[in-house]
Amino acid sequence: MVTDQYINANELMTQLSAVSVRLNIDYEIDSIAGKTCEIGVHEFKLEKSLFKFLPESLVESVKETLQKSFRTNQKVQTDVNYIGVNNEQRKVRIVSNTVDVNSKVFYLVTFLRLPVKDKIIREINGFESYEEARRQLEISEARFNSFFENDPVMHVSVNPSTGLIADCNKFVIEKLELSDKSDIIGQPIYSIFTDEKRIRCLSLLEKFKVEGKLKSEEMDMVTKSGKIITVILYTVAQRDEYGKIILSRSTLVDITDLKNAQKRHDRKRNRLELLNKELEQFVSTCSHDLQEPLATIKFAGDVLSKLYHDKLDAKGHDYLKYIDEAVDRLTKQIRSLLAHSRIGINAERSVVNTDNLVATVIKDLGKRIIESNAQVTVDKLPNVEAYGVELRLVFLNLISNAIKYSKQGVIPKIQISAEHCDDFVMFSVADNGIGISRQDSKEIFKIFNRVNETNPNKGTGVGLAHCDKIVRMHDGKLWVESNIDGGSTFFFKIKKSYDL
Ligand code: ADP
Known about the structure:
Blueprint: H1 9-15, E1 18-23, E2 29-34, H2 56-72, E3 76-83, E4 89-101, E5 104-114, H3 118-125, H4 130-150, E6 154-159, E7 164-168, H5 170-175, H6 198-211, E8 213-222, E9 228-239, E10 245-254, H7 256-307, H8 314-342, E11 349-353, H9 354-364, H10 366-372, E12 375-378, E13 383-387, H11 388-404, E14 413-421, E15 424-431, H12 438-441, H13 463-473, E16 477-482, E17 488-495
Parallel strand pairs: 12-14
Antiparallel strand pairs: 1-2, 1-5, 3-4, 4-5, 6-7, 6-10, 8-9, 9-10, 11-13, 14-15, 15-17, 16-17
Helix pairs in contact: 7-8, 9-11, 11-13
Adenosine-5'-diphosphate (ADP) binds at residues 397, 401-402, 405, 431, 433-436, 444, 450-452, 459-465, 488.
């Protein structure tokens, strides 16, 4: 009971569930009495326009009421149903009056909170009665609870001011090997995480208090028996009607299996990388070591042919020639093997203008193109994200083969094209040369495999193996379509770009 003669305007307004403001003619707030929460508004600030703070659904009605009271110079009141700033249903009575203070006009506006009744509920939500609305609410709560409890991911809510667990679903109890919710409710949130993650848990709690949410945070939980569960954590805030955070609601998704699979995959990849390095080292060492005895054989052969030139008969000279040729071939093959093993080492990927790249390759092959009268046509080629130096080698090998394996007496015609296929670009180098049989076309991409031993332009049989390795470095594929005497088209597909 109020005994004092003087009743504070604020108290009076609060008792009336009302808030009053005085506004100047520009609707800027001059004084406030009562609490804005009564009418579902966060705050009013002095010297700011009233309309900055009102929910949108209330603005028009307030404006109309104020203007009417100004026009009629009388007290005007309007009852309005609206949605408060936290999406709650509200009803308010707006009472506006104008007063003259020192020849200045002011508005006196009072917002009186009214109970939201059946009709209003129906107007807003389509429910027939309070009871109906309550029943619907209970059903929806039961549905939510069942979803919350039986959801096969973990849900935990925490009181952010104490850091204590307020609630969790059954799945948390099951996962942490606990017997009952009472084992966990009221415990500090950090207690469900491993010792190493406890400090991080506290810093995440602080982050949550500031930002009101957490997203994709990886944490390690620990079960009663000490098993570690890796989870991804998402947290949202539950707020009261004034917007203050009252609870955190976290969803924790167990990613332990995924993590283990990733670790297994990483281990395998590391092992493969190691094996690959060892293999490269092996090839490189072998190649180096083999060069030395070969040089000795070559030297001995040369000495033999010089010092014993007159003592050897024709057969002897032939044998020496075979040895010499074989040594030359082996030397070339060893060098090629070394070059093959080195492809990709220190390779750098960048955006490559294949138009320019092919133009330089053609320029480099200029002498051979002129000598063979070859006609090379190039379509418009695209940019790709690729290993430029290595890609150049692919075009160089394919174009040079197209010249090398041309038909005798026929002018070589070479066509270079490209087309887009989803995430890939497919290049092609077509010629009108001697062609390859279906059977041979499967073998030519293997190192040292040659099919035209009769061809006067003897090669080492590594060019296409180089190309194949380089195309694979680009997650691509190299193949040929050809017929004996019908020319060949070499195709290779490489990825347009990479997610780095
Ligand atoms: P090399 O040309 O040194 O023999 P490659 O690896 O470049 O080695 O080619 C392997 C084999 O594939 C060649 O020996 C040849 O028989 C065949 N070949 C390559 N390109 C063509 C082509 N454009 N036309 C016909 N045959 C080809």
